[in-house]
What does this fold into?
Amino acid sequence: MKYLSDQMLIEVYQRAVDLQLDPAFIELLCAEMERRNLRITQVSA
It folds into this structure.
């Protein structure tokens, strides 16, 4: 995770949610965003 930029992490998270990937993977991404104090300002529709 440390190799992903903040922007890339957010994009990967949004894509994972859109594709309904494994909830454990999505939770891992979410935890990393929280660790970095990142917030999603726009939710994909």
In short: DSSP finds two helices and no strands in the chain. The chain has a mean pLDDT of 90. The radius of gyration is 10 Å.
